[in-house]
## 1
Amino acid sequence: MSRENHTTTMRTASYEADPEEVRRVMLLYSGGLDTSVMLKWIQDQYDAEVVCLTVNLGQPDEDYRVIEDKARRLGAAECHVVDAREEFAREYVSPAIMANALYGGGYPLFTALGRPLIAKLAVEYARRAGCDTIAHGCTGKGNDQVRIEATIATLAPELGVIAPVRSWQMGREQELAYAQEHGIPVKGASETPPYSIDDNLWGRSSEGRWIEELEHAPEDDVFQLVSRPEEAPDEPEVVELAFERGVPVGLNGEPLELVELLERTAQIGARHGVGIVDHIEDRIVGLKVRDIYEVPAAAIVLPAHQELERLVCTIHQNQFKPQLDRQWAYLVYAGLWWEPLRGDLDAYMQRVNETVTGTIGLKLYKGHARVITRSSPNAVYDAGLASFSESGGLFSQAASPGFIELWSLQSRMAWRMRNRP
Ligand code: ARG
């Protein structure tokens, strides 16, 4: 027990915990190597009690009883497992769908959406459990530290933050040694280091190992969620998604709660190899990295939503909204979930989505999802108008030449000026 002797005495930011005042720590616990080592290390280094919080955002194949058990055996004073899937879907994924949220053209933000909720829950549980400090397992090179610490510093200025992985200067080998020394069970300790995985019901990311070599094509073993397209069924499958006010509410004619709808959509997409994204990304902290994403639900829901939105919106809305969509995705990626501009943008997204009601059919086949049918009571579309035969009383072809004369006026004048003999 060495209160004087820890590696965390250097504090740069106001919200970083003063090591002398760390008594009871809320640890965001996943059950993996980093946070398990942290659980012991915090008790040792600070002579502090540790309360663990594990948040279920729909990461597949997680056994929360095993995680809780492990935490208790490693000396946690309290363990909490929170099922936040419903809140995550409703308050975080829904607005992302309404904003067609993709960062860098391909990343549907599942991790970026999850972190502010996890950190918000950490604040709630820390206050309830009488903790003075929150600990997380993020490194100093990623976006997640930004999202988590910005959330805590915003919502709970009275709480301190510690990020042991950022400061303890142990590599994987030292962590494994520490684990062995302290009786911390580790899966697959002697194998090649695993990919760095993060997942929830909106997607899964893999980083590390060969993924860091840009010329290295994806190896098969990275795909644990989505089947490889070449192994997907030879028969295509059609799915129909129903939306109400921009939010998916039904799958293949069956009304479903959002969590179940997203989970089922993900399963169907995964079977057909849909949603593999090999992405080069500009992190907030300056690094450029490569991620392999598996996002079967997002790869179906987002194109469907976007198609329906385009159908019910006017040309002017359709020209304008993508700019705000991009700003929304950037703010959320960049860890500024609590920034008022995000709320301002959400108000706009909700307003536009008031008419985004209807059904979109997509055909899934060997890695592709293609929109094939659309229907909406609010479509700004009239089959009679679009065909050449009928005008429906709203459109006069005789007016077209007059329109063209005025529409092209400035362009014609400029052309003449530039091409004067
Ligand atoms: N690149 C993505 C992001 O910044 C995924 C990060 C995954 N996080 C992790 N700790 N493995 O949101």
## 2
Amino acid sequence: MHVLVTGGSGFLGSHLSKRLVEDTHDVICLDNFYTGDRKNVEHLLSFPNFESVRHDVTFPYYVEVDRIYNLACPASPVHYQANPVQTTKTSVHGAINMLGLAKRTGARILQASTSEVYGDPEVHPQTEDYWGRVNPIGIRACYDEGKRCAETLFFDYHRQNNVEIRVARIFNTYGPKMQPNDGRVVSNFIVQALKGQDITIYGDGNQTRSFCFVDDLIDGLIGFMELEENFPGPINLGNPTEFTILELAETVIRLTKSKSKVVFKVLPQDDPMQRKPNIELAQRKLGWEPKIQLEQGLIKTIKYFSKLDRLSG
Ligand code: NAD
Ligand code: UDP
Ligand code: UDP
């Protein structure tokens, strides 16, 4: 199949592109390199069934494909808040262009949505029928509302134009190929621990997240895209084992044998207190659940960061 991966040079996109190339699909990896890195897909450039294209999804793009994975969008709060207007444009105009492309070609299209559509949730664990609690004017809104509007567009193109859609709500995912300066919690803590710097906990560290290792997530995304039943979702994909941020810090310090100390910083505005997916729908529809538990995944991620040249210096 001919597959387009937008955001293909980013963290998730590069893992997905690798799997699709190995599965012998023709892969076009489209990225404007805002938070992505050419190095993430360097090893794929020699494959005849892989192509890297610099393009911004907020502009139209014409190509003939069978599948579109729409991942283009900065995902770390630090990066998506750096240029919030561009973040919303990427989610909204990007979705319109990619849906227009899907409509014209008849391609099936998957949206990398997010647990952020639930905001700071009153329902715990979060189920797909929960509508969420998002502050529409806060500093996270450019991302949260952009992703919510993208979901709306996906379902309207589905109803109005019969576009075959798949909406995956991805919960915190981590692993090799995150950028050392990505700013999300797992990469921050590992980089800090390896460099012997203070581990920066925002707030008191009692807020929770549920962390999914990237290989598990990629299995879920491909399984959902190729599900025979025409099921649009939304479907939660994530690891339901919940940890506090303090527990994460302690685990990273123990696994890296670091001498780093924990320091407490101000909690950013609208930072959700708890997050844990209910994955019964994914289990039932896709027969999918994560296999890699946190320590195992952290060990692989620590190994990756400790070998990274960009960390020394
Ligand atoms: P990432 O920042 O590593 O990857 C995003 C990629 O999109 C980057 O390569 C970036 O350069 C590219 N990009 C950004 N704006 C673009 C634009 N206008 N045009 C073309 N390319 C653009 O982040 P990630 O963790 O790999 O996330 C990938 C997708 O999955 C995002 O849509 C994100 O919202 C979603 N997601 C990720 C997580 C997670 O925990 N990793 C959780 C929920 C949702
Ligand atoms: N589009 C695109 N590639 C295509 C087809 C469409 O980028 O192969 C863009 C197109 O520029 C348009 C958007 O997708 O702005 C939405 O397309 P649609 O056909 O839904 O809307 P229309 O063209 O009628 O505005
Ligand atoms: N966080 C932290 N220290 C850091 C980075 C993040 O304590 O150096 C916290 C952040 O405030 C949030 C959680 O870790 O409560 C997860 O943050 P991340 O940016 O990874 O993702 P989010 O789920 O908030 O989008």
